[in-house]
Amino acid sequence: MTAEIVIMNKHGLSLAADSAITSGQEGVRKVYNSANKLFALSEQHPVGLMVYGSASFMEIPWDIILKTFSNELGNKKFKYLSDYMDHFLDFLQKEKRFYHEEVEEIIVYRTFTTIIKEIVKEVESTIEEDADAKMEQEYVTNCLIKCVKKNISYYKKKDVYLQMNYDSFLMKFNSTVEEICKEVIPHETPEELMENLYRLAYEVVKRDFFSVGSSGFVITGYGEKEIFPRLLNYRLEGFVFEQLKYKKLKEKRISYTYDQYDGTASISAFGQSEMVDSFIEGIEPDMEEAMFGILDKVLKSYYDQMQQLLNITLTKDQVQKLEKMGNTIYESISDAVEEYKENNYLQPLLGVVRSLPVRELAEMTETLINLTSFKRRVTRVTESVGPPIDVAVITKGDGFVWVRRKQVVDPK
To answer: Does the residue 76 lie in any domain?
Structure first.
């Protein structure tokens, strides 16, 4: 796993990344603190790059790809940061050394594995909650079919990222889908279930679904005509049928005034961002999610409690009105919490960040990564964020400058 952060204001930006990399299968994890996740595009360009998620793309380490891209780019410069990203995507698709047909099977394997594991967990949870459920194969199979069909309907509404037809997909990857089903589903899969699983695999591979093995990609800095920094965040899966599957996730732009684009200051976290989010918003995301989950459960069931407590029977119309009132209360509380976080945490913090010199931005990015690393060290989880921390700053005048960078070779 990874923790990375970019903080921008009008003076420039700072970016920082930890060095932990996790390898191994489920249950047996090894963590090494030597990974490079932060890169300078080149000495000639005021542009920085970061990767998170998978340490490789199409089974090629990211540092090799980025070094090759830097060499190919040479002294060529672009007007806008988005042009650098477009050129990089074009480079990935044209560079034949980054494509190998056999790796397509790995892309499909990890994509379908991700979704089928989620489905199996959902079905197991459904069975556990159903007190009358009989643990017979037919019942489990029906639950799986229902859940798979629900997911097929859901993903059919998503955007298409790859152009391919079902018959070609099935001809090329049917054995991969069958292999995954044998590994993940602990009993026989009848024909109806298998047909739906083939269809689900096809839909998630071609549409807006990215596996846990995909890579996050961050490019930040300046184009030649840009005087304030900018950030672009993408998700890259890999090639299937010789087509690159990728998605734009986020864009941040610093502007002249606070009411244009993303204002005059910005804080963006990537990878494991829970501690940064807690610092920015005043509450840990998991805690907030749990609290609103409890609130939602209470508001959806309180009329049942009312009927039991008062020994009354509400009409269907009364129940609907109470449900509507419950939704209104939930939305009101949610809006009030968001407004409180905005007024008491986010805006005051950004008010300070917008005036910080780049050296202070560097200290802030490093501190926030250290905070995440410390949290992982003192809790009962894998230390998947760890030192040394690489830190750099980028300004319009000086370009990319390393503030702190780990030594690959001992200088002694």
So the answer is: yes
